[in-house]
Write a structure and sequence with these properties.
3 copies of one chain form a homotrimer. With 334 residues, chain A is α/β, with parallel strands linked by helices. Helices cover 15% and strands 28% of the residues of chain A. Chains A and B meet through strand 20, strand 21, strand 36, strand 37 and helix 4 of A and strand 2, helix 3, strand 38, helix 4 and helix 5 of B. Strand 37 of chain B pairs antiparallel with strand 38 of chain C.
């Protein structure tokens, strides 16, 4: 693709010869002829000077440091994100049509521009909207709906009665609409509570590989527009996640907790049930959240890693912390 | 369903007009005409007074506060659990028979009342008992057995030589009988140990979405009757879980650990290998367990979440805890 | 199998009647006639004396304590690992050939000695090498490659453009090559970054059930030869794991982190992104790693489990740690 054409597609101005062609993205260090790269800030200045890229995305302040034609942009990282889709074809965009081996229920409705992969199952009264892509081995349950331009990678399960909006992307192994962990104690052990709610996923939602989202117990579990969920996340029944919140891998959110919009939850955080996390909360990785958070801001709870000999002593000290508080109080009283 | 009929099915007495019909469950606040709701305790009294439900499940003490007919029960939550299955059909209960696209080995045995879903694979000498349901894309390995009335949701893997009891329910993406993490160090790296045990799952066991249960190294991994496992749990080889123990999401239990009966393990707990957790232990969410627990009771290890500026200081203080102990001892000696 | 034949296969010397036959492995305590068992150290001496095994693998020092014929070996545990494959047939080793229900693209290349299971999908220009086994319901994406003697258990997803070396073993539910968590913030929310790298997995790599390995953002994610990954691990984009490193279950490693060779990472550890962990690092279970580790050795960060009444006081004390430090300083100044 000619640089001038790419600039037009990204709505950017350029400097240098716009007739050069770029074919793929590469980092400043690895780029060679035909590659487009990007420099975000002054931190990358030396790498920019040394790059062999054919062209680079740069902020205005770095334009003069580039040894090659440049596309000028306020946010080179965002421009790189856009360019990645222009230069590299989306592997999920396959030919419309239903694979010969797929099983589509007579009462399902699949748009003619949608693509249904091999061995996929589209159940009774399920709806697959325009340009949606259902990967190989996916299951779309009865009365569920996959919105326009939404792509399910191979091996995704959407259970019955769940809704996904438009332009979502769901990675392999994700399960949407599993039956949550609702049980009543009885004299004969745990009595399961039938989970009769569904899952409602908004538009432009990313759901990572092997992430699970339970259906609601009575009302729906809800994931708002623009939420991005990494891999191996567990969202329990009746959780609500607000608009544009980002959640990193291995996070668990227990039942009925409400997470606000524009939050950023670090990897491996664990949030217990029935809490309310307000908008704009940022949680450091591996935090444990046992109480509602009413103020936006950044929070953490992880303890430091230590060489094991020191850690053993800290471990013992921690188990005596309570006594230590008392001893200091006694010393102060003297 | 008429209220009197429901009362009969749940073995409850009622007050008010028993000819009214209820069709579905709803919470006190969301309920409208045709809805059955429930109030558990005095905490729900005002919502009960205000409800528009057609009928409610209530304890005797709350019967007079209801503005509608009541079903009187000692445990409304348990009655609600039972009612959920009566009022809402179980989506897993599909028509008996083998889907045309399923692959059932000539030497497998599938009961005529069982249902085998699309593209399911039932391997050599596998047994599927009466009224069992095998969802789409499931695999039941050679010489494995799925007990009567057990339901596997779509995309469950039961490897070879594993046994599931009766009335179990296994959510999508669960893997039962994967090869555990057994390796011997050698001069050429890690030498895998062939995992020749199986998995034995009792009856009335719930296994959550994307939960993994490894087969035993030599003997079997064992999950007793009535155990309920949430999503994304990892059970390593030769673990044993006792009767009616409940384990919340994202828990990991390492090899050969034995968990007693009637335990409750909070979400994201991590239990190292070769431990023994006695009966009746309750673990707070996100606890780390590195030693055996010999006394029943509740335990925890999580540290508090703090705004990041305070957390940074606590983090540093924690890394100096050992020294702090010594300094206090010195002060005391003066 | 006759003991002498087994000894030959394992290149071990023996004592006692080598004409006896052993058929399977069992622990010292459970072993009976026809069983081979093993004793690793003096710790097992009494169990060895009491065993009913037909033969045992023992170190020279324990040979005289065995009540049965022995195979003498420097490392009985390693010999047991080897014997496990000799005595018990590998269930993954199925007959070569392509299942009638599998879907193999016309432009894929499957070696005639490879086995492709039921409903497996081998996509365009994918390559499956000699003696590789692709389980039921697996997907091997376009232009991906599965090396010789590598076995994928049922329900494994290998996305497009990924490479697995030889003699690997991948457990059910694993996803290799999912699109990682790369997004640029924009005025309209998160803009996805197309993940154009792949995953390169070396030889003799074990990948556990429901483990996920994201493809690289631009360059590849890399898992070196001999790495063993347990279940439910999350490896983010552009992570590199060095040779023979072992990672236990439920670990999360965030983007671009580089883990050295011969490391041992305990279960449920969480490693944030862009770190460098040097060779030979051992991490205790449930550690949180937020900074690079430059020195080999053992590290930990877990806090002790306590009965909940004591834990509550420690929890409060922890949240006052910073103040406590100051108070002690003040006392010292007096």
């Amino acid at each position: 693709m000619k640089l001038c054409e790419l600039a037009q597609r990204l709505a950017l101005s350029w400097e240098g010869s716009a007739d050069l062609e770029v074919h793929r993205l590469a980092s400043l260090r690895n780029a060679g002829p035909g590659d487009l790269s990007f420099a975000v800030s002054a931190q990358h200045k030396q790498a920019l000077i040394d790059t062999h890229a054919t062209a680079v995305l740069v902020p205005p302040a770095l334009a003069d440091s580039a040894p090659c034609p440049t596309l000028i942009c306020d946010s080179p990282y965002l421009a790189y994100a856009s360019a990645s889709w222009v230069l590299h074809p989306d592997p999920a965009l396959v030919k419309p049509g239903i694979a010969a081996t797929a099983s589509v229920h007579a009462d399902a409705r699949v748009h003619e521009s949608a693509a249904i992969g091999e061995f996929a199952v589209i159940d009774r009264e399920a709806v697959v909207e325009a340009h949606a892509v259902i990967g190989a081995h996916c299951t779309v349950g009865a009365e569920s709906r996959v919105g326009a331009h939404t792509a399910l990678m191979p091996h995704v399960v959407v259970a019955h009665g769940c809704v996904l909006g438009e332009h979502c992307r769901v990675q392999s192994g994700a399960v949407i609409g599993s039956e949550g962990f609702g049980f009543a104690p009885s004299a004969n052990g745990w009595q399961a509570i039938h989970q009769i709610g569904g899952v409602r996923v908004g538009s432009r939602v990313h759901i990572g590989a092997n992430t699970t989202i339970d259906r609601g117990a009575m009302d729906d579990t809800e994931i708002a527009d623009g939420v991005i969920l990494d891999n191996q996340i567990q969202i329990a029944h009746n959780v609500k996640i607000g608009k544009n919140t980002a959640i990193a891998g291995c996070v668990g959110i227990a039942g009925s907790t409400v997470v606000g919009s524009s939050c950023q939850i670090g990897g491996a955080c664990n949030i217990v049930g029935h809490l309310k996390i307000t908008d704009g909360v940022v949680l450091n990785a591996a935090s444990t959240i046992t109480q509602s958070i009413t103020e936006p801001g950044r929070y953490g709870s992880a303890v430091p890693l230590m060489p094991v000999s020191r850690w053993r002593r800290a471990y013992i000290a921690f188990s005596q912390l309570d006594g230590l508080m008392k001893r200091v109080r006694k010393l102060e009283q003297k």
